[in-house]
User: Fold Excitatory amino acid transporter 1-like from Notothenia coriiceps.
Amino acid sequence: MTQSNGENPQRTRSGLQQIRAGVQSRSLLAKKRVESITKDDLRGCFMRNSFVILTVAGVIIGTIMGFGLRPYKMSYREMKFFSFPGELLMRMLQMLVLPLLVSSLITGKNIRSYNLN
Assistant:
């Protein structure tokens, strides 16, 4: 920032002032946007993202319940009661992934044999 490196100190200072002015104008614009948010905007955001919000809430609640119920001695029936939803989810994921995996393997094999001929 000195004259020895070939930069003009006045020019550098004006560049910093431009950056500062840009940041201030953007912060004012962001402040106006935040102040103009209504309840309908929030409701719409929650409705659009409800699946993600409920999924994250379910993971958090499940983790808390898992760690919270661990010290209690549960019967086999009680353990199955809590593990049933997780088993259903894992089986549904397997039903989704397994056909994709098999079709990808078959397609890859056919493409490889086609290239060899």
Remarks:
- The CA atoms of residues 38 and 46 lie 13 Å apart.
- The chain is about 85% helix and 0% strand.
